[in-house]
């Protein structure tokens, strides 16, 4: 295929290639334009931007981070209609950011990255997409952790004759009215769409492996006056944003430093459960047995009440196999269903795209991460020159806005690119500044193995004794070996301090 593209002259050269147009890709693109860098493209597999918020259109989809905190710091949104934004508004916000930021012409839609390899002789990345081949000096992966839906390996799934789909690929054309539906999984997505579909279906079997901790959702409509105030006086919205940010930072004390603090939150959650679920048998099924925060804390006011309806059954026995139209549990109980909806999350600790990224020594990211994901400051990996990750290993959050972490990484990467741009000014002819394309062969930057190893060791040490490793649960934060490769285990402002300045001393810069 590569040879065919080359013969057809479909190879495109670009300085920077960004993969993905969600929050991370859009934010990185805006930052490059603001810094006067125009030689870049954003490769997007879909026909529109938005990432997770484009894909997840299931009924009831909304954010569980307060609206005022869930935006770029330089592009606040005074239009939020509720304190917790619905999916459609977040998607519209991202589309607006693309248009207002001048990114529309930079995004190459329906260009899914199929393979990327580092070319040591050419000192660049060769990217093969579904439409073309790109040669890029720098590669920025902004695909995120919530991009590839995870469907469990259930025996007989290929034999099942009914309708089957994942919540991230919701089939809006399929009519659930009067259907017997099985929902597998009780995570963040399921607790939002279950109350929406429960009134439609004839019977809903909810297969629960572990009950989540659910807190009240303090959601309200943002008034007309507030929206105009935030529009005319942005400082008011920044003040609200700051108050929310620092309030959520307080969660770290319970998550990290003293797990006994979480008992207060557990009391609130248990009272919420008792108030909304009167059936003692059902309430017992829905009561978690692990420390609050070990798994993602969920918020909802309508999930529990929906489960008390006569057409809902919560099944705690694990699934053994599927037949043509039946789910069979380990204990032999059978459930005939017309449709199965998976609310089973995403490939977070085993990113599928890692198979397609091959570094300096012909080793893929998947192979390099065979014992678990890790990257220096969640951004750079030894053996993968000129590669930057956004929302990389151990940059996820269990308490605050992921957009904050994304902006920290964007600033770090932008500083690296600016530094390289400055380094290259005299690379061709004397002291006259030269364009990047004239700097041959150019400079290659790669994080030192010692620095990356030390960083990863420190992160894993910080995770010891936290609620995510000592809370008594098995969450999607942990990989197959039980290591937490997803979350940042401290305050977010500490991560900002770590990334406020690009530390060239921990990198090798080769001409």
Features:
5-stranded parallel β-sheet; FAD/NAD(P)-binding domain; 17% strand; 2 domains; 511 residues; 16 helices; 8-stranded mixed β-sheet; alpha/beta
Cα shape: globular
Radius of gyration: 24 Å
**How many structural domains can be distinguished in the coordinates?**
2
Oligomer: single chain
Span of the ends, CA to CA: 31 Å
Can you tell me about this structure?
The chain is α/β, with parallel strands linked by helices and 511 residues long. The chain has two domains: 2-49 and 103-148 and 347-510, FAD/NAD(P)-binding domain, CATH 3.50.50; 163-212 and 250-342, FAD/NAD(P)-binding domain (3-Layer(bba) Sandwich). The chain is 30% helix and 17% strand. It is built from 16 helices and 20 strands. The chain has helices spanning 2-7, 23-34, 52-55, 87-100, 190-197, 224-232, 234-249, 251-257, 262-276, 280-285, 303-307, 365-368, 402-423, 449-463, 467-470, 492-499, and strands at 11-19, 40-43, 107-108, 113-119, 124-129, 133-141, 163-166, 180-184, 203-207, 214-215, 298-299, 312-315, 319-322, 326-329, 334-336, 339-342, 357-358, 387-389, 444-447, 507-510. Strands 1, 2, 3, 4, 5, 6, 17 and 18 form an eight-stranded mixed sheet that branches. Strands 7-16-8-9-12 form a five-stranded parallel sheet, with no helix packed on it. A three-stranded antiparallel sheet has the order 13-14-15, with no helix packed on it. A hairpin with a 4-residue loop joins strand 4 and strand 5. Helix 2 (23-34) packs parallel to helix 13. The longest helix is centred in the last third of the chain and has 22 residues, at 402-423. The protein is globular, with a radius of gyration of 24 Å.
């Amino acid at each position: 295929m590569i040879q065919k593209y080359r013969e057809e002259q479909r190879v495109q050269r670009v300085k920077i290639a960004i993969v993905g147009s969600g929050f991370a890709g859009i934010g990185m693109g805006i930052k490059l334009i603001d810094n006067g860098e125009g030689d870049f493209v954003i490769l997007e597999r879909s026909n529109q931007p938005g990432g997770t918020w484009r894909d997840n259109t299931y009924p009831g989809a909304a954010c569980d981070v307060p609206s005022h905190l869930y935006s770029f710091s330089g592009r606040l949104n005074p239009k939020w209609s509720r304190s917790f934004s619905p999916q459609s508004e977040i998607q519209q916000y991202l589309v607006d950011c693309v248009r207002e930021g001048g990114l529309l012409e930079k995004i190459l839609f329906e260009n899914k990255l199929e393979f990327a390899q580092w070319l040591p002789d050419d000192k660049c990345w060769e990217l093969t997409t579904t439409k073309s081949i790109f040669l890029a000096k720098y590669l920025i992966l902004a695909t995120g952790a919530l991009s590839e839906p995870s469907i469990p390996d259930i025996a007989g799934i290929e034999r099942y004759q009914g309708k089957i789909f994942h919540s991230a690929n919701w089939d809006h054309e399929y009519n659930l009215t009067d259907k017997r539906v099985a929902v597998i999984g009780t995570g963040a997505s399921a607790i939002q769409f279950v109350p929406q579909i429960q009134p439609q279906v004839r019977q809903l079997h909810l297969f629960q492996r572990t009950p989540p901790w659910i807190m009240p959702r303090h959601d309200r409509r943002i008034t007309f006056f507030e929206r105009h105030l935030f529009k005319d006086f942005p400082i008011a919205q920044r003040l609200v944003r700051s108050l929310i940010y620092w309030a959520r930072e307080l969660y770290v004390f319970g998550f990290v430093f003293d797990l006994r603090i979480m008992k207060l939150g557990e009391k609130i959650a248990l009272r919420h459960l008792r108030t909304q679920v009167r059936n003692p048998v059902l309430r017992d099924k829905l009561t978690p047995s692990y420390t609050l925060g070990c798994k993602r804390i969920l918020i909802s006011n309508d999930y529990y009440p929906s489960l008390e309806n006569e057409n809902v059954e919560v099944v705690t026995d694990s699934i053994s196999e599927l037949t043509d139209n039946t789910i069979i549990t380990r204990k032999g109980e059978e459930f005939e269903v017309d449709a199965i909806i998976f609310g089973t999350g995403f490939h977070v600790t085993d990113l599928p795209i890692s198979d397609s990224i091959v570094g300096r020594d012909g080793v893929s990211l998947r192979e390099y991460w065979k014992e678990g994901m890790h990257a220096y400051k969640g951004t750079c990996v030894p053996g993968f020159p000129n590669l930057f990750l956004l929302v990389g290993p151990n940059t996820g959050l269990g308490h605050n806005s992921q957009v904050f972490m994304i902006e920290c990484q964007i600033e770090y990467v932008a500083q690296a690119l600016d530094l390289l741009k400055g380094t290259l000014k005299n690379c061709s002819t004397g002291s006259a500044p030269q364009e990047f394309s004239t700097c041959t062969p150019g400079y290659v930057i790669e994080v030192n193995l010692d620095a990356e190893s030390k960083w990863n060791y420190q992160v894993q040490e910080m995770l010891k004794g936290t609620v995510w490793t000592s809370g008594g649960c098995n969450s999607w934060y942990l990989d197959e070996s039980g290591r937490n490769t997803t979350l940042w285990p401290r305050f977010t402002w500490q991560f900002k301090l770590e990334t406020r300045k690009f530390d060239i001393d921990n990198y090798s810069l080769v001409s």
